[in-house]
Amino acid sequence: MEPQIIATTPFEGQRPGTSGLRKKVRVFQQPHYLENFVQAILDTRPELVGGTLVVGGDGRYYNREAVQTILRMAAANGVARVLVGRGGLLSTPAASCIVRKHHAEGAIVLSASHNPGGPDADFGIKFNAANGGPAPESMTSAIHARTQEIERYLTLDSTAVDLDRIATLTLGATCIEVIDPVADYAELMASLFDFDAIAGLFASGGFRMRFDAMHAITGPYALEILENRLGAEAGTVLNAEALPDFGGGHPDPNLTHAAALVAMTRGADGLDFAAASDGDGDRNMILGRDCFVTPSDSLAILAANAHLTPGYRQGIRGVARSMPTSQAADRVAEALGVEHFETPTGWKFFGNLLDAGRITLCGEESFGTGSDHLREKDGLWAVLFWLNLLAARRQSVAEIVTEHWRRFGRDYYTRHDYEGVASEGAEGLMAALREQLPTLPGQQLGARRVAQADDFAYTDPIDGGRAEHQGIRIRFEDGARIVYRLSGTGTEGATLRVYIERFEPDPTGHQLDPQEALGELIATAREFAGIEPRTGRAAPDVIT
Ligand code: VG1
Ligand code: CO
Protein backbone atom coordinates (compact mmCIF):
# COMPACT_ATOMS: atom_id res chain seq x y z
CA MET A 1 0.00 0.00 0.00
CA GLU A 2 1.60 3.26 -1.15
CA PRO A 3 1.58 6.20 1.27
CA GLN A 4 -0.52 9.13 0.13
CA ILE A 5 1.03 12.57 0.38
CA ILE A 6 -1.63 15.10 1.40
CA ALA A 7 -0.92 18.82 1.02
CA THR A 8 -1.76 20.93 4.08
CA THR A 9 -1.14 24.33 5.63
CA PRO A 10 -0.29 25.22 9.27
CA PHE A 11 -2.87 25.97 11.96
CA GLU A 12 -2.19 28.64 14.55
CA GLY A 13 -2.02 27.63 18.18
CA GLN A 14 -0.84 24.01 18.02
CA ARG A 15 1.40 24.65 21.01
CA PRO A 16 1.17 21.98 23.73
CA GLY A 17 0.30 23.33 27.20
CA THR A 18 0.90 21.85 30.66
CA SER A 19 0.02 18.41 29.31
CA GLY A 20 -0.31 18.17 25.54
CA LEU A 21 -2.49 19.97 23.02
CA ARG A 22 -6.03 20.44 24.35
CA LYS A 23 -8.81 22.02 22.31
CA LYS A 24 -12.52 21.71 21.73
CA VAL A 25 -13.51 18.55 19.83
CA ARG A 26 -14.74 20.76 16.98
CA VAL A 27 -11.29 22.26 16.58
CA PHE A 28 -9.81 18.77 16.25
CA GLN A 29 -12.54 17.82 13.76
CA GLN A 30 -11.39 20.44 11.23
CA PRO A 31 -9.87 18.72 8.19
CA HIS A 32 -6.09 18.22 8.64
CA TYR A 33 -6.00 19.59 12.23
CA LEU A 34 -5.21 16.32 14.00
CA GLU A 35 -3.16 15.09 11.03
CA ASN A 36 -0.88 18.14 11.09
CA PHE A 37 -0.09 17.65 14.76
CA VAL A 38 0.52 13.91 14.39
CA GLN A 39 2.78 14.49 11.39
CA ALA A 40 4.70 17.11 13.39
CA ILE A 41 5.33 14.45 16.06
CA LEU A 42 6.44 11.92 13.45
CA ASP A 43 8.67 14.46 11.66
CA THR A 44 10.44 15.53 14.85
CA ARG A 45 10.87 12.05 16.37
CA PRO A 46 12.82 10.11 13.71
CA GLU A 47 13.34 7.21 16.13
CA LEU A 48 9.69 6.30 15.51
CA VAL A 49 10.47 5.37 11.90
CA GLY A 50 11.30 1.68 12.07
CA GLY A 51 10.44 1.74 15.78
CA THR A 52 7.54 0.93 18.07
CA LEU A 53 4.76 3.36 18.97
CA VAL A 54 2.11 2.92 21.69
CA VAL A 55 -1.32 4.42 20.94
CA GLY A 56 -4.40 4.77 23.13
CA GLY A 57 -6.68 7.21 24.85
CA ASP A 58 -9.16 7.76 27.63
CA GLY A 59 -12.15 6.78 25.48
CA ARG A 60 -13.66 10.23 25.23
CA TYR A 61 -15.66 11.36 22.22
CA TYR A 62 -13.48 11.33 19.04
CA ASN A 63 -11.01 8.83 20.58
CA ARG A 64 -11.83 6.06 18.09
CA GLU A 65 -11.64 8.28 15.00
CA ALA A 66 -8.36 9.78 16.17
CA VAL A 67 -6.83 6.34 16.82
CA GLN A 68 -7.70 5.22 13.28
CA THR A 69 -6.13 8.38 11.82
CA ILE A 70 -2.96 7.86 13.87
CA LEU A 71 -2.67 4.19 12.85
CA ARG A 72 -2.89 5.07 9.14
CA MET A 73 -0.36 7.87 9.51
CA ALA A 74 2.02 5.75 11.59
CA ALA A 75 1.95 3.07 8.90
CA ALA A 76 2.44 5.61 6.08
CA ASN A 77 5.41 7.11 7.93
CA GLY A 78 7.17 3.79 8.39
CA VAL A 79 6.57 3.06 12.08
CA ALA A 80 7.40 -0.66 12.30
CA ARG A 81 5.07 -1.69 15.10
CA VAL A 82 2.14 -0.10 16.90
CA LEU A 83 0.76 -1.35 20.22
CA VAL A 84 -2.78 -0.12 20.63
CA GLY A 85 -5.13 -0.79 23.52
CA ARG A 86 -8.28 -2.76 22.70
CA GLY A 87 -11.07 -0.35 21.81
CA GLY A 88 -8.38 2.33 21.35
CA LEU A 89 -8.24 2.60 25.14
CA LEU A 90 -5.28 3.13 27.45
CA SER A 91 -5.13 5.06 30.68
CA THR A 92 -2.28 7.57 30.78
CA PRO A 93 -0.30 5.56 33.37
CA ALA A 94 -0.90 2.32 31.45
CA ALA A 95 0.45 3.93 28.27
CA SER A 96 3.57 4.92 30.20
CA CYS A 97 3.88 1.41 31.64
CA ILE A 98 3.55 -0.20 28.19
CA VAL A 99 6.16 2.07 26.59
CA ARG A 100 8.66 1.04 29.24
CA LYS A 101 7.83 -2.64 29.37
CA HIS A 102 7.83 -3.14 25.59
CA HIS A 103 10.77 -0.78 24.92
CA ALA A 104 8.74 1.40 22.59
CA GLU A 105 10.14 4.62 21.16
CA GLY A 106 7.17 6.60 22.39
CA ALA A 107 3.42 6.90 22.80
CA ILE A 108 0.65 9.06 21.46
CA VAL A 109 -1.91 9.47 24.23
CA LEU A 110 -5.36 10.86 23.45
CA SER A 111 -6.85 12.65 26.41
CA ALA A 112 -7.96 15.94 27.81
CA SER A 113 -7.72 14.37 31.26
CA HIS A 114 -10.12 15.94 33.73
CA ASN A 115 -11.76 18.20 31.13
CA PRO A 116 -15.31 17.15 30.14
CA GLY A 117 -15.86 15.03 27.00
CA GLY A 118 -18.48 14.96 24.23
CA PRO A 119 -19.05 16.67 20.87
CA ASP A 120 -19.12 20.13 22.44
CA ALA A 121 -16.41 19.44 25.01
CA ASP A 122 -12.68 18.81 24.97
CA PHE A 123 -10.17 16.56 23.25
CA GLY A 124 -6.43 16.33 23.57
CA ILE A 125 -3.29 14.66 22.29
CA LYS A 126 0.18 14.35 23.70
CA PHE A 127 3.43 12.61 22.95
CA ASN A 128 5.33 10.56 25.51
CA ALA A 129 8.98 9.73 24.94
CA ALA A 130 10.89 6.44 25.20
CA ASN A 131 11.15 6.73 29.00
CA GLY A 132 7.33 6.62 29.08
CA GLY A 133 7.06 10.22 30.28
CA PRO A 134 5.45 13.33 28.82
CA ALA A 135 7.65 14.96 26.20
CA PRO A 136 9.91 17.55 27.82
CA GLU A 137 9.76 21.20 26.74
CA SER A 138 12.53 20.72 24.16
CA MET A 139 10.40 18.13 22.33
CA THR A 140 7.10 19.96 22.61
CA SER A 141 8.74 23.15 21.30
CA ALA A 142 10.14 21.25 18.32
CA ILE A 143 6.73 19.70 17.63
CA HIS A 144 5.10 23.13 17.82
CA ALA A 145 7.74 24.66 15.53
CA ARG A 146 7.11 21.89 13.01
CA THR A 147 3.33 22.57 13.04
CA GLN A 148 4.12 26.14 11.99
CA GLU A 149 5.87 25.11 8.77
CA ILE A 150 4.08 21.91 7.84
CA GLU A 151 3.18 21.45 4.16
CA ARG A 152 2.24 17.78 3.85
CA TYR A 153 1.35 14.70 5.80
CA LEU A 154 1.47 11.02 4.96
CA THR A 155 -1.41 8.61 5.31
CA LEU A 156 -2.81 5.43 3.79
CA ASP A 157 -6.03 4.96 1.90
CA SER A 158 -7.11 1.98 4.00
CA THR A 159 -10.17 0.70 5.80
CA ALA A 160 -10.49 0.98 9.57
CA VAL A 161 -8.48 -1.41 11.74
CA ASP A 162 -10.62 -3.71 13.94
CA LEU A 163 -9.74 -2.44 17.40
CA ASP A 164 -12.21 -4.53 19.34
CA ARG A 165 -10.41 -7.86 19.37
CA ILE A 166 -6.99 -8.70 20.71
CA ALA A 167 -5.02 -9.61 17.59
CA THR A 168 -1.89 -8.93 15.60
CA LEU A 169 -2.74 -7.30 12.28
CA THR A 170 -0.91 -5.60 9.46
CA LEU A 171 -1.54 -2.20 7.99
CA GLY A 172 0.68 -1.58 4.97
CA ALA A 173 4.08 -2.77 6.18
CA THR A 174 3.28 -2.01 9.83
CA CYS A 175 2.48 -4.58 12.47
CA ILE A 176 -0.48 -3.49 14.61
CA GLU A 177 -0.89 -5.33 17.89
CA VAL A 178 -4.24 -4.80 19.59
CA ILE A 179 -3.43 -5.52 23.24
CA ASP A 180 -5.28 -5.90 26.52
CA PRO A 181 -5.15 -2.36 27.96
CA VAL A 182 -5.13 -3.59 31.57
CA ALA A 183 -2.83 -6.65 31.81
CA ASP A 184 0.66 -5.09 31.86
CA TYR A 185 -0.46 -2.40 34.26
CA ALA A 186 -2.17 -4.81 36.65
CA GLU A 187 0.96 -6.97 36.71
CA LEU A 188 3.11 -3.97 37.60
CA MET A 189 0.77 -3.03 40.47
CA ALA A 190 0.93 -6.58 41.83
CA SER A 191 4.73 -6.32 41.87
CA LEU A 192 4.71 -3.12 43.96
CA PHE A 193 2.06 -3.73 46.61
CA ASP A 194 1.16 -6.48 49.05
CA PHE A 195 -1.91 -7.83 47.27
CA ASP A 196 -2.37 -10.58 49.88
CA ALA A 197 -2.53 -8.05 52.70
CA ILE A 198 -4.98 -5.86 50.77
CA ALA A 199 -7.11 -8.90 49.88
CA GLY A 200 -7.08 -9.76 53.60
CA LEU A 201 -8.43 -6.32 54.40
CA PHE A 202 -11.33 -6.81 51.98
CA ALA A 203 -11.95 -10.35 53.24
CA SER A 204 -12.05 -9.18 56.88
CA GLY A 205 -15.62 -7.98 56.36
CA GLY A 206 -15.05 -4.92 58.51
CA PHE A 207 -13.72 -2.69 55.77
CA ARG A 208 -15.94 -0.82 53.32
CA MET A 209 -14.58 0.91 50.26
CA ARG A 210 -15.85 2.52 47.05
CA PHE A 211 -13.85 3.67 44.05
CA ASP A 212 -15.49 6.16 41.70
CA ALA A 213 -14.27 5.71 38.11
CA MET A 214 -16.43 8.70 37.09
CA HIS A 215 -17.46 6.88 33.85
CA ALA A 216 -13.91 7.33 32.63
CA ILE A 217 -10.93 5.15 31.79
CA THR A 218 -10.18 3.65 35.23
CA GLY A 219 -13.41 1.61 35.21
CA PRO A 220 -11.90 -1.46 33.52
CA TYR A 221 -8.63 -1.13 35.45
CA ALA A 222 -10.31 -0.81 38.83
CA LEU A 223 -12.73 -3.68 38.16
CA GLU A 224 -9.87 -6.00 37.24
CA ILE A 225 -7.55 -5.00 40.09
CA LEU A 226 -9.91 -4.22 42.98
CA GLU A 227 -12.78 -6.63 42.36
CA ASN A 228 -11.23 -9.48 40.33
CA ARG A 229 -7.72 -9.69 41.75
CA LEU A 230 -8.14 -8.31 45.27
CA GLY A 231 -11.62 -9.65 45.93
CA ALA A 232 -13.34 -6.40 46.86
CA GLU A 233 -17.10 -6.95 46.84
CA ALA A 234 -18.97 -6.51 43.57
CA GLY A 235 -20.12 -2.92 43.30
CA THR A 236 -16.97 -1.51 44.90
CA VAL A 237 -16.22 0.26 41.63
CA LEU A 238 -18.83 2.93 40.96
CA ASN A 239 -19.53 4.41 37.52
CA ALA A 240 -17.31 1.71 36.07
CA GLU A 241 -18.57 1.93 32.52
CA ALA A 242 -16.32 4.18 30.43
CA LEU A 243 -18.53 6.51 28.39
CA PRO A 244 -17.51 8.92 25.60
CA ASP A 245 -19.03 11.87 27.47
CA PHE A 246 -18.21 10.52 30.97
CA GLY A 247 -21.95 10.37 31.60
CA GLY A 248 -22.18 14.14 31.19
CA GLY A 249 -20.02 14.65 34.29
CA HIS A 250 -16.77 16.37 34.92
CA PRO A 251 -14.23 13.57 35.45
CA ASP A 252 -12.18 15.51 37.96
CA PRO A 253 -11.74 13.81 41.34
CA ASN A 254 -12.10 16.62 43.83
CA LEU A 255 -14.51 17.74 46.53
CA THR A 256 -16.69 19.59 44.02
CA HIS A 257 -16.92 17.12 41.15
CA ALA A 258 -16.96 13.93 43.23
CA ALA A 259 -19.38 15.30 45.82
CA ALA A 260 -21.57 12.17 45.81
CA LEU A 261 -18.63 9.99 46.76
CA VAL A 262 -17.58 12.41 49.48
CA ALA A 263 -21.10 12.22 50.94
CA MET A 264 -20.72 8.42 51.23
CA THR A 265 -17.79 8.88 53.61
CA ARG A 266 -19.62 11.13 56.02
CA GLY A 267 -20.99 10.18 59.44
CA ALA A 268 -20.85 7.06 61.57
CA ASP A 269 -22.04 4.89 58.64
CA GLY A 270 -19.51 6.43 56.30
CA LEU A 271 -17.18 4.30 54.18
CA ASP A 272 -13.79 3.42 55.66
CA PHE A 273 -12.07 4.36 52.44
CA ALA A 274 -13.08 6.00 49.17
CA ALA A 275 -11.15 7.12 46.15
CA ALA A 276 -11.71 8.48 42.66
CA SER A 277 -9.71 9.04 39.51
CA ASP A 278 -10.01 11.35 36.52
CA GLY A 279 -10.73 11.05 32.78
CA ASP A 280 -7.39 9.47 31.85
CA GLY A 281 -6.63 7.71 35.14
CA ASP A 282 -3.63 9.66 36.34
CA ARG A 283 -5.25 11.61 39.19
CA ASN A 284 -6.46 10.37 42.56
CA MET A 285 -8.55 11.61 45.43
CA ILE A 286 -8.18 9.83 48.78
CA LEU A 287 -10.93 9.90 51.43
CA GLY A 288 -11.43 8.18 54.74
CA ARG A 289 -14.44 8.36 57.05
CA ASP A 290 -15.02 12.08 57.62
CA CYS A 291 -11.56 12.69 56.24
CA PHE A 292 -10.25 14.20 53.02
CA VAL A 293 -6.54 13.77 52.42
CA THR A 294 -5.19 16.75 50.53
CA PRO A 295 -2.97 15.64 47.66
CA SER A 296 -0.04 17.52 49.18
CA ASP A 297 -0.45 15.64 52.47
CA SER A 298 -0.93 12.38 50.59
CA LEU A 299 2.48 12.75 48.93
CA ALA A 300 4.09 13.47 52.29
CA ILE A 301 2.35 10.52 53.96
CA LEU A 302 3.30 8.10 51.17
CA ALA A 303 6.90 9.29 51.46
CA ALA A 304 6.94 8.79 55.22
CA ASN A 305 5.42 5.29 54.97
CA ALA A 306 6.83 3.95 51.71
CA HIS A 307 9.02 1.40 53.50
CA LEU A 308 5.83 -0.43 54.57
CA THR A 309 5.12 -1.55 50.98
CA PRO A 310 7.04 -4.25 49.08
CA GLY A 311 7.88 -2.02 46.11
CA TYR A 312 9.49 0.69 48.25
CA ARG A 313 10.79 -1.43 51.13
CA GLN A 314 14.34 -0.16 50.52
CA GLY A 315 13.18 3.37 51.25
CA ILE A 316 13.06 6.30 48.90
CA ARG A 317 15.89 8.22 47.28
CA GLY A 318 14.25 11.61 47.14
CA VAL A 319 10.96 13.45 46.66
CA ALA A 320 9.87 16.13 44.21
CA ARG A 321 6.77 18.28 44.26
CA SER A 322 5.47 20.90 41.89
CA MET A 323 6.03 24.46 43.07
CA PRO A 324 2.42 25.17 44.17
CA THR A 325 2.21 21.87 46.10
CA SER A 326 2.48 22.37 49.86
CA GLN A 327 5.81 22.01 51.61
CA ALA A 328 4.66 18.96 53.61
CA ALA A 329 6.74 16.52 51.52
CA ASP A 330 9.89 18.62 52.07
CA ARG A 331 9.61 18.08 55.82
CA VAL A 332 9.43 14.31 55.36
CA ALA A 333 12.42 14.32 53.00
CA GLU A 334 14.42 16.31 55.54
CA ALA A 335 13.49 13.86 58.32
CA LEU A 336 14.48 10.93 56.08
CA GLY A 337 17.70 12.64 55.05
CA VAL A 338 16.92 12.47 51.32
CA GLU A 339 16.87 15.17 48.64
CA HIS A 340 13.77 17.17 47.79
CA PHE A 341 13.02 19.22 44.70
CA GLU A 342 10.56 21.92 43.67
CA THR A 343 9.64 21.78 39.98
CA PRO A 344 7.24 23.73 37.75
CA THR A 345 3.66 22.51 37.38
CA GLY A 346 3.30 19.54 35.01
CA TRP A 347 4.55 15.96 35.18
CA LYS A 348 7.10 16.47 32.39
CA PHE A 349 9.40 18.21 34.87
CA PHE A 350 9.76 15.09 37.04
CA GLY A 351 11.04 12.88 34.21
CA ASN A 352 14.73 13.74 34.36
CA LEU A 353 14.86 13.45 38.17
CA LEU A 354 13.19 10.03 37.98
CA ASP A 355 15.42 8.84 35.12
CA ALA A 356 18.53 9.98 36.99
CA GLY A 357 17.49 8.11 40.14
CA ARG A 358 17.43 11.29 42.21
CA ILE A 359 13.82 10.82 43.34
CA THR A 360 11.51 7.89 43.98
CA LEU A 361 8.23 9.70 44.68
CA CYS A 362 6.75 12.86 43.24
CA GLY A 363 3.46 14.67 43.28
CA GLU A 364 1.33 17.70 42.61
CA GLU A 365 -1.37 19.42 44.60
CA SER A 366 -3.73 18.80 41.68
CA PHE A 367 -4.47 15.24 42.80
CA GLY A 368 -1.40 13.77 41.12
CA THR A 369 0.95 11.32 42.81
CA GLY A 370 3.45 8.91 41.31
CA SER A 371 6.83 7.25 41.51
CA ASP A 372 9.67 5.81 39.49
CA HIS A 373 7.52 2.77 38.60
CA LEU A 374 6.54 4.66 35.45
CA ARG A 375 6.73 8.23 34.17
CA GLU A 376 3.21 9.60 34.65
CA LYS A 377 1.19 10.34 37.70
CA ASP A 378 -0.85 7.31 38.53
CA GLY A 379 -4.32 7.32 40.09
CA LEU A 380 -4.86 3.64 40.90
CA TRP A 381 -1.28 3.25 42.06
CA ALA A 382 -1.95 5.88 44.74
CA VAL A 383 -5.16 4.11 45.76
CA LEU A 384 -3.34 0.77 46.07
CA PHE A 385 -0.52 2.44 47.99
CA TRP A 386 -3.06 3.77 50.50
CA LEU A 387 -4.79 0.38 50.73
CA ASN A 388 -1.41 -1.23 51.41
CA LEU A 389 -0.76 1.31 54.19
CA LEU A 390 -4.18 0.74 55.72
CA ALA A 391 -3.54 -3.02 55.70
CA ALA A 392 -0.03 -2.67 57.10
CA ARG A 393 -0.79 -0.10 59.80
CA ARG A 394 -4.25 -1.35 60.73
CA GLN A 395 -5.37 2.20 61.35
CA SER A 396 -8.02 4.40 59.78
CA VAL A 397 -7.20 7.04 57.19
CA ALA A 398 -7.93 9.78 59.74
CA GLU A 399 -5.61 8.20 62.31
CA ILE A 400 -2.76 7.96 59.83
CA VAL A 401 -3.24 11.58 58.77
CA THR A 402 -3.52 12.92 62.32
CA GLU A 403 -0.44 11.02 63.45
CA HIS A 404 1.46 12.37 60.47
CA TRP A 405 0.57 15.95 61.42
CA ARG A 406 1.53 15.31 65.02
CA ARG A 407 4.95 14.16 63.93
CA PHE A 408 5.66 16.63 61.12
CA GLY A 409 3.22 19.49 61.73
CA ARG A 410 0.31 20.36 59.44
CA ASP A 411 0.53 22.38 56.26
CA TYR A 412 -2.92 23.91 55.92
CA TYR A 413 -3.55 24.14 52.20
CA THR A 414 -6.19 25.25 49.72
CA ARG A 415 -6.45 26.08 46.02
CA HIS A 416 -9.01 28.53 44.67
CA ASP A 417 -9.79 28.38 40.93
CA TYR A 418 -11.47 31.14 38.94
CA GLU A 419 -12.45 29.42 35.70
CA GLY A 420 -13.25 30.80 32.27
CA VAL A 421 -12.34 34.39 33.08
CA ALA A 422 -11.55 36.84 30.29
CA SER A 423 -7.93 36.37 29.18
CA GLU A 424 -7.11 40.10 29.27
CA GLY A 425 -8.26 40.41 32.89
CA ALA A 426 -6.30 37.35 33.98
CA GLU A 427 -3.17 38.38 32.12
CA GLY A 428 -3.47 41.95 33.42
CA LEU A 429 -3.67 40.60 36.96
CA MET A 430 -0.53 38.51 36.51
CA ALA A 431 1.35 41.39 34.85
CA ALA A 432 0.45 43.73 37.69
CA LEU A 433 1.67 41.19 40.24
CA ARG A 434 4.91 40.77 38.32
CA GLU A 435 5.51 44.52 38.38
CA GLN A 436 5.20 44.63 42.15
CA LEU A 437 7.67 41.82 42.79
CA PRO A 438 10.83 43.89 43.29
CA THR A 439 9.30 46.02 46.07
CA LEU A 440 7.43 43.24 47.87
CA PRO A 441 10.09 41.82 50.21
CA GLY A 442 9.83 43.52 53.61
CA GLN A 443 6.29 44.76 52.91
CA GLN A 444 3.42 43.96 55.25
CA LEU A 445 0.56 42.13 53.47
CA GLY A 446 -2.37 41.56 55.80
CA ALA A 447 -1.10 39.99 58.99
CA ARG A 448 2.30 38.95 57.63
CA ARG A 449 5.51 40.41 56.29
CA VAL A 450 6.79 39.24 52.89
CA ALA A 451 10.15 37.46 53.00
CA GLN A 452 10.57 36.64 49.29
CA ALA A 453 8.62 37.20 46.09
CA ASP A 454 9.44 35.99 42.59
CA ASP A 455 8.18 34.69 39.28
CA PHE A 456 9.21 31.06 39.62
CA ALA A 457 11.92 29.90 37.23
CA TYR A 458 13.45 26.45 37.20
CA THR A 459 16.73 25.09 35.97
CA ASP A 460 16.58 21.35 35.47
CA PRO A 461 19.37 19.90 37.64
CA ILE A 462 19.99 17.09 35.16
CA ASP A 463 20.05 18.73 31.73
CA GLY A 464 20.18 22.41 32.61
CA GLY A 465 16.92 23.13 30.74
CA ARG A 466 15.32 26.39 31.81
CA ALA A 467 11.61 27.11 32.39
CA GLU A 468 10.53 30.65 33.21
CA HIS A 469 7.34 32.43 34.27
CA GLN A 470 6.01 29.40 36.12
CA GLY A 471 3.93 31.33 38.66
CA ILE A 472 4.14 34.19 41.15
CA ARG A 473 5.38 33.05 44.56
CA ILE A 474 4.98 35.17 47.66
CA ARG A 475 6.61 33.71 50.74
CA PHE A 476 6.07 35.23 54.17
CA GLU A 477 8.45 35.33 57.09
CA ASP A 478 6.64 32.49 58.88
CA GLY A 479 6.86 30.22 55.78
CA ALA A 480 3.25 30.77 54.67
CA ARG A 481 2.84 31.16 50.89
CA ILE A 482 0.51 32.57 48.30
CA VAL A 483 1.04 31.45 44.71
CA TYR A 484 -0.73 32.71 41.60
CA ARG A 485 -0.61 31.10 38.16
CA LEU A 486 -2.69 30.71 35.04
CA SER A 487 -3.78 27.25 33.94
CA GLY A 488 -2.17 25.68 30.90
CA THR A 489 -4.82 23.01 30.31
CA GLY A 490 -8.03 24.97 29.74
CA THR A 491 -9.73 25.42 26.40
CA GLU A 492 -11.85 28.50 27.10
CA GLY A 493 -10.66 31.87 28.34
CA ALA A 494 -8.25 31.76 31.27
CA THR A 495 -8.30 29.97 34.60
CA LEU A 496 -6.62 31.72 37.52
CA ARG A 497 -5.34 29.40 40.22
CA VAL A 498 -4.50 30.76 43.65
CA TYR A 499 -2.67 28.43 46.03
CA ILE A 500 -2.54 29.25 49.73
CA GLU A 501 -0.76 27.51 52.58
CA ARG A 502 0.56 27.98 56.08
CA PHE A 503 2.37 25.71 58.49
CA GLU A 504 0.96 24.83 61.91
CA PRO A 505 3.40 22.95 64.12
CA ASP A 506 1.14 22.85 67.19
CA PRO A 507 -1.08 19.71 67.35
CA THR A 508 -3.74 21.58 69.32
CA GLY A 509 -4.25 23.69 66.19
CA HIS A 510 -4.56 20.81 63.71
CA GLN A 511 -8.31 20.25 63.59
CA LEU A 512 -9.51 23.43 61.87
CA ASP A 513 -11.32 23.67 58.57
CA PRO A 514 -8.62 24.79 56.07
CA GLN A 515 -10.81 27.61 54.75
CA GLU A 516 -11.01 28.93 58.28
CA ALA A 517 -7.40 28.28 59.17
CA LEU A 518 -6.34 30.11 56.02
CA GLY A 519 -9.08 32.73 56.09
CA GLU A 520 -6.81 35.69 56.62
CA LEU A 521 -4.37 34.62 53.90
CA ILE A 522 -7.23 33.93 51.49
CA ALA A 523 -8.55 37.46 51.98
CA THR A 524 -5.06 38.89 51.57
CA ALA A 525 -4.54 36.93 48.35
CA ARG A 526 -7.81 38.22 46.90
CA GLU A 527 -7.23 41.83 47.83
CA PHE A 528 -3.59 42.04 46.94
CA ALA A 529 -4.13 40.70 43.40
CA GLY A 530 -7.37 42.65 42.93
CA ILE A 531 -9.14 39.47 41.87
CA GLU A 532 -12.64 40.92 41.92
CA PRO A 533 -11.89 44.21 40.14
CA ARG A 534 -9.76 42.47 37.52
CA THR A 535 -11.85 39.36 36.84
CA GLY A 536 -15.31 40.42 37.98
CA ARG A 537 -15.45 37.33 40.20
CA ALA A 538 -16.50 37.67 43.81
CA ALA A 539 -15.77 34.02 44.62
CA PRO A 540 -13.85 31.07 43.15
CA ASP A 541 -15.62 28.43 41.03
CA VAL A 542 -13.82 25.49 42.56
CA ILE A 543 -12.13 25.18 45.94
CA THR A 544 -9.91 22.20 46.61
C1 VG1 B 1 -3.29 21.12 35.72
C2 VG1 B 1 -2.66 20.92 37.08
C3 VG1 B 1 -1.28 20.32 36.92
C4 VG1 B 1 -1.37 19.02 36.12
C5 VG1 B 1 -2.06 19.28 34.81
C6 VG1 B 1 -2.27 18.02 34.01
O1 VG1 B 1 -2.52 22.01 34.96
O2 VG1 B 1 -2.60 22.12 37.78
O3 VG1 B 1 -0.72 20.11 38.19
O4 VG1 B 1 -0.09 18.50 35.89
O5 VG1 B 1 -3.33 19.88 35.02
O6 VG1 B 1 -3.02 17.09 34.72
P1 VG1 B 1 -2.91 23.57 34.81
O7 VG1 B 1 -1.87 24.14 33.90
O8 VG1 B 1 -4.30 23.61 34.29
O9 VG1 B 1 -2.84 24.14 36.20
V1 VG1 B 1 -4.09 16.09 33.89
O10 VG1 B 1 -4.67 14.93 34.96
O11 VG1 B 1 -5.07 17.22 33.25
O12 VG1 B 1 -3.11 15.40 32.70
CO1 CO C 1 -5.42 13.36 34.07
Automatic annotation (TrEMBL):
Pfam families: PGM1_C_vert_fung, PGM_PMM_I, PGM_PMM_II, PGM_PMM_III. CDD domains: PGM1. Keywords: Isomerase, Magnesium, Metal-binding, Phosphoprotein. It comes from the Bacteria. Its cofactor is Mg(2+). GO terms for biological process: carbohydrate metabolic process. One of its GO terms (cellular component) is cytosol. InterPro entries: A-D-PHexomutase_a/b/a-I, A-D-PHexomutase_a/b/a-I/II/III, A-D-PHexomutase_a/b/a-II, A-D-PHexomutase_a/b/a-III, A-D-PHexomutase_C_sf, A-D-PHexomutase_CS, Alpha-D-phosphohexomutase_SF, PGM. Its EC number is 5.4.2.2. It catalyses: alpha-D-glucose 1-phosphate = alpha-D-glucose 6-phosphate. GO terms for molecular function: magnesium ion binding; phosphoglucomutase activity. It is an enzyme of class 5 (isomerase). Residues 14-152, 184-287, 296-408 form the Alpha-D-phosphohexomutase alpha/beta/alpha domain. PANTHER family: PHOSPHOGLUCOMUTASE (PTHR22573:SF2), PHOSPHOHEXOMUTASE FAMILY MEMBER (PTHR22573). Belongs to the phosphohexose mutase family. This is phosphoglucomutase (alpha-D-glucose-1,6-bisphosphate-dependent). It comes from Marichromatium purpuratum 984.
